[in-house]
Amino acid sequence: MYDGLFTAFRHAGNRPTYHGEHRTAATVDVRSSLLVFACCIILLASLLTSPATRGHKRWFTIGRNVFAIFIGSVILLVNFGHGWETSMVHTKVQYKAGTSQELDVNVGVYIGLRGVNITMQGREPEKIRENVNFNEQFLWSPSWEQGQQFYGPHAGQINQEFREAQYRGVPFPILWVAEYFTMDGEDIRWGRSYRRAGYVVYALLWFSFSTWVLANVLLFLVIELASYCAIITGLGLLLANFLYWLLRWGPSLQIPLADTVLVFSFGWCYWATMVMGILCSVVGVTLLVYNYYWPENTVKFLHDCGRPKRNSAVKKVVGATPDTVLASRSSSILQHVRKRRISISSESRKHLSKSLPTKTKPLSTEDENKNIDKSRGTSTAAIELTSVSTKDRIPLTDPDTVEYFI
Nearest Cα to 76, choosing from 272, 235, 220? Predict the structure, then answer.
């Protein structure tokens, strides 16, 4: 009974069920997708904390956070992306080595800083009864070494991956394109040039990302240093563009494929790096100039935008004089002393009593201090109050209006 239960619907008798391999092409770049997801989480966290900021400063804080996260995420994406040079053609090409059958396919090549990604999608799957959709990646990182010639154990990483692709039976068009990046002799050194350019740009992009993070930190401390870091970030990105264009060896890469030619051009990573470099440079120079000529307005715009004014709790009394304002302040201090049961010296009491109007009852003498000390059971902590000039403490914008704090 049990044997029939466990062997039901199995074609190999008592053997366990075995499902065949279901190979699918990569649809997205996992590393780039994770970077986008992480940046979106950081952006969402900053948006969720924005209601804690009051007034118009909330919108300024949101804009500043979005701008900072956007620049940083673009720098990371172009560092790990496969869009520095791209090419795509539509042609009829031999599908696999050893067969004369040709398929109508789209072949795309995407060169990044760490390697090359080659795709092939068939347009006539009914000819071979197979879904032709391949996506192969050949890397020269993280080793970044050229290695020896050919495909031995001491060869470069991309050469070894090319040999593995041959053993796996990768379609002929993908192997044809990848072989151009493995050869290193005579006038065929594109693999070496792209590897060298990728390594230099890779280091510059990490440097630019670190200076951008430092600029955002220094923006809350020293605005001038923050502007310098933003300028350095922009110059680093622009230098990465220039060196990538300069270090590519020889003429532009062109790969003949059947009746067409793969002609490469700069992709979205190259142009995004250039745009971010110009943007960071402009922002840094603008911030530096504004901070040099209008430092107070710059600090107010960056740090005090939307912050409630310090005199928001100020009351305006029409027709008051400096003496009445000083008396009101002294009365408030005395009320606080009585409420908190604070002991003050006799000199401070005399100074406050002189400032009070005639109808205000002055504080008692030192005996009150003794009673307070006995009830609290602590020693007298005398608080010396210094007298301040009325002109220094009370700015009068209108002779008939006096502003004072409660």
Answer: 272
pLDDT tens, residue by residue, 23-81: 666 667 778 888 889 989 998 988 888 887 776 777 888 888 889 999 999 999 999 98
Structure tokens at 198: 């990728």
Q: How far is CA 8 from CA 18, 19, 35, 101, in A?
A: 14, 16, 47, 42
Q: What is the pTM of this model?
A: 0.67
Whether 304 and 53 have beta carbons less than 8 Å apart is answered as no
d(CA 71, CA 75): 6
Quick one: DSSP state of residue 278? Answer: H
Q: How far is CA 399 from CA 222, 323, 395, in A?
A: 39, 13, 10
Q: Are the CB atoms for 174 and 118 separated by under 8 Å?
A: yes
DSSP state of 181: G
**DSSP secondary-structure letter at 63?**
H
Q: Residues 345, 346, 352, 356: what is their CA dihedral angle, to the nearest 10 degrees?
A: 140
